[in-house]
Structures
1.
Amino acid sequence: AGGKMRGFRVYPGANRQAFARMGLRAGDLVTAVNGTPLDDKDRAEEIFGTLSSSTEARVSITRNGRPQELVLNIAQLSSEASSLGVGGDGNIPPDPAAEAPAE
């Protein structure tokens, strides 16, 4: 909005079931993590980098134009990502190509 980043659009990767179990749906716009807005790419990378030391994360999303809150189990995410061979430390790096276009 107004040429400013609003968040990251998310889509399932190789493990669609894990994505759905987290409560996410293809095309959700993740706008904040633990109350911190994802309106800056550098800040978003910092936030995603700190999640590996957390047990859960409160994620604000916009789905079909409506705001929602999800609580994600980070330990489960890390375990499932490791089993898929995503990143040596189980972290899934944010994909800049998935950034939401300004609306």
Note: Strands lie at 8-10, 28-33, 36-37, 56-63, 66-73.
2.
Amino acid sequence: MRPEPTPSVKFTYDDFVNFPDDGKRHEIIDGEHYVTPSPNTSHQRIATNLTVAIGSYLKRHLVGEVFAAPFDVVFSNLDVVEPDVLYISRERSGILTDQHVSGAPDLVVEILSPGTRKTDEVTKRKLYERSDVRDYWVVDPELELVKIYRRLEGRFSKAAELALERGDALTTPLLPGFSAALADLFKSPFSG
């Protein structure tokens, strides 16, 4: 099911908090309302594996926090999203409120679902770029690859774009010494 924006009405954060708690993901981008169904098993496995990998690193290196969806990230009154995984450094910890994130996380991860590809790769990439997210990872469970968009000189730079495949490892300058094998990210505990 493809997320569909609601036409002609600009929604705000006040509208967002009144959306139904119906098990679907509700987001607002440029005032447009996007609704997607709850994620599938593969999506959740990847989100959990990545959250655990980053969380394990952060237990040894007290440099920030990792969060998994659902957790609202409020960029503006017209831009409220729920990334699959996000990391906030100690330096940016002031953006954490009791209710949500109010500003740009250092790292945002979106895991593609069949209907979210365009939204994640185009619409959200543009939102994260203009909102000062430092690293944006797009995980493709179908192709078992990760696209990394890294901020250089104020924007996501083509020179810093990476496409990692199953034999590669995820690393980021945001977490010095962190490394997660992509094969482990996509791995089911029930597979050999």
Note: The mean pLDDT is 91.
